[in-house]
Amino acid sequence: MSEVKQYDGREYDVIVVGAGHAGSEAALAAARMGNKTLLMTINLDMVAFMPCNPSVGGPAKGIVVREIDALGGEMGRNIDKTYVQMRMLNTGKGPAVRALRAQADKHAYHAEMKKTIEAEPNLTLRQGIVDDLIVEDGICKGVVTNTGARYHAKSVVLTLGTAARGKIIIGELQYSSGPNNSQSALELTKNLTEKYHFDLERFKTGTPPRVDGGTIHYDETEEQPGDETPNHFSFQTPDSKYIDIKNQLSCWLTYTNEKTHEIIRENLDRAPMFSGMIEGVGPRYCPSIEDKIVRFADKSRHQLFLEPEGRKTDEWYVQGLSTSMPEEVQQQILHSIKGLEDAEMMRPGYAIEYDVVAPYQLKNTLETKLIKNLYTAGQTNGTSGYEEAAGQGLIAGINAGRRALGEEPLVLKRSDAYIGVMIDDLVTKGTKEPYRLLTSRAEYRLILRHDNADLRLTEMGHQIGLISDDEYDAFLEKQEDIKNELQRLSEIRIKPSQVQEFLESKGSNGLKDGVLASEFLRRPEVSYNDLLKFIDESEKDLDRRVIEQVEIEIKYAGYIKKAKDRVDRLKRMEEKAIPDRIDYSAINGLATEGRQKLEKIQPTTIAQASRISGVTPADIAILSVYIQQGKIAKVG
Amino acid sequence: MQSISTEFDTIAAISTPPGEGGISIIRISGVDALKTAAQIYQGKNLNKVESHTINYGHIIDPDNGNEVDEVMVSVMRAPNTYTKEDVVEINCHGGIVATNRILQIILSLDARLAKPGEFTERAFLNGRIDLSQAEAVMDLIRAKTDQSMKVALDQLDGNLSHLIKNLRQDILDVLAQVEVNIDYPEYDDVETMTARLLQEKATEVKAKIQQLLSTAKQGKVLRDGLATAIVGHPNVGKSSILNHLLHEDKAIVTDVAGTTRDVIEEYVNVQGVPLKLVDTAGIHETDDKVEKIGVDRSRKALSQADLVILVLDSSVPLRDEDRELLRETAGSQRIVVLNKADLDNQINLIELHEYVKDSEIIKSSAVSPMGTKDLEDRIAKMFFAGSIENTSNNIMVTNARHIGLLKQAETALDSVLEGIEVGMPVDLVQIDMTRAWDLLGEITGDSYQDELLDQLFSQFCLGK
To answer: What is the ipTM of this complex?
Structure first.
């Protein structure tokens, strides 16, 4: 085979490799900031494709979507245009953990995102496979495609997903492939490790079989409809756009049973996860069904949700049944399940193995430590999930764009956003399995709510140029409305006689003395709407999101204050910077393990250092003393 | 040669109290400890002797080759040493001059003078002990009685740390369950962490914290001593009571140096309870002088006291001044001693009982030391329900920092319970539960607090 002759293509400011959920956000962000941007994808028909579940959001993830929106990203707007069902989860719990989830029309989601990308003036979308980088003196200057094109750019973002030396496994069958039988990228990660000495890991993820909706017995399952009350992901989408509940599609709930488990147990020797065929490490948080049967042997059933893949298809996704068992066994499993006895499988489930750049090699800007001006995001950094990918893609795109513009990087703190929590976790702790965001990963959960994502991040989004002046003005108005209403409620008094009857009807104690309206609203049994029975409405017609903020800020003021106190307590450590290129071998008190971890991860603050596993409080004490005055430890 | 985990520089200090004594010990710790000692030691080759041996020899001044002192040198190699580093201890004849000379020679070689508490700090930094254990070392040094020492030793063994770690684990288990419910709202295969379960756990942990805190009063007494004021009119025999308590062998005088109040504190060991005598100077002064200073001084002593011993002369009727003292001490933990009980009683007992319960009164006389025994028993009973021995079975908290943190953790758990009471969602209540977990971690140093360490170790005396 003769060598492909190389040629120089056009020059760009930013090149993004891969157009999945991370790549789409990265490219749009870089382009919208004013960078001439190239977005390369292996297959133009798979832009923002959802190879796994047809849904967006959920606990923690839904909050990330709102954060992306507040920063000027696309995911929230795109799902708002293409959902088939919207549902608020955890409504019985506190405001910090409520989360929106949408069922997506998979094809519409892809098509809509592709249209948006195509419409972006600064952005070129092109099909092609990137084989290598152009690196000079440790600085990334572009990419080389398999067709021989050399594209130069000021910065490059890699969002390779499962295409990076992807390998699909179904029972005994295995073949080189990207997601959903697409072509895999065989050269790029090979070059990353062999030529540029990146430390790569091999991860595994999987997807369940899809079945033909015409063959499902829905009446044997439980219906899971969407919400009547309007809700969208994007702060820009008006309630008027909400799809009437009649026009939303339902999901359906069913369960595995003893028979299902027996089939799986009998065929475990054919399961690649256990036969040793899969080397990659799978996610603990959404394990395959065979994994669940083995690890939770005492459970007699597991939940399965049947989810529609879109409006123009009758393909259904069997959530909870991710598997890489042989096709034949997958069919037996399906037929053992109530409602799926006669189901026709349209696509088998599969496991996919792929290359991951061990994330300790990244800075918290998502730039690699080894090669300057090179950024990575998404599954390439070891995460799982569209939302996690999009969140990183946005940050990588922003920072690659800002680098191209010669501006300082944007770093989100753990107290700013879930995206900040995720990136800090990745670069500080690394991950041994596909990383999924959970609300429990955020220590400042009550501050990082989905309802206040705009209040947290719109300012930043505007500053970096992704939130337009109009959007920003609307945001400022909302902020002002909240402030005014809070002020108003803290000035109106309520007399005991006014609310006596109401409180009795709620079975609660009456008031002894008059209270401020805001104090009255603090009572758990009183809602803002209840309050309006006793006081005048605000002069201005308030948006429901303003009312929501007012209610949360008043009702949970005590807890919010505690959460903020905790942020403040740790602030000093967050602010204590560790100098660049500190020589840990020169700090003589550090324990061997702590020293090795610090050298590897190169934390930027004392707080980050303290989060590294294997670094003890004593190591932190020595390190901070060394930085401050070099007293305890001998230098040199 | 390199120690197991760390490579601090080498430090040295005199570890025995300053002044003359039978022997003095100079401790050296660090990578160069052996090398340094070997350079100035004449005897066996210290670099080759076995670890944990004591070796006879002489210290030689390297400047002039003169013998400085006759010594015994302990060699302890890392890691099984106090600091987890190589440690050498030179036992020399206890003169001030010889000891200081040896230290100076060592400091002129590869070692520097240790800061106060630095040896213990290294034990902590080298991971041998945690924070509460390091604090126990400090308590051990300052222990006034056997009982105080026992409590400090328990803490040094890690008993308190162990208990705290278990409590934290309990809390963490609950938190984990709350999290699963939040992150997997639609899965019914995890047990729902209801408010009731959370309430049970919070109550349980709170009870354990309260149990610990209930030892705090006794623990604090054992650690810091019981501030005791002996008050009364001049000439009633305060000095004789004091002298009875101060059997020669029981007297302890502690030099509290390095604090702002550079004073002498006197401790009396009463059945294991260290009594810290408040204003003993006032008692020691001749009664003539005391008369001039009068009741004012007693009042001042009273305000500082945990225990008041009010002495009355039963051979004379009550004076106005006595009545005043009786009234003023009514709210205090007090013992009223009727002294000179061998003489005819002149006090109107009916009147006395208006001021004092019978159970507070003890009779004493100079010729009957039995009264002193009664007094000691009574003190022990007042503060330890009669049996100090019982305390050895419990883990006690003695340290004000620990007590403060435990109280804060208790408050946080109260907030958990309150939150549940008013129907707050578990994910909010969880904030207080996490706070309790953080606070307990500060006791053992697992929750890192950056200014804490410097502050703690600076309280140590030199050489430890």
So the answer is: 0.73
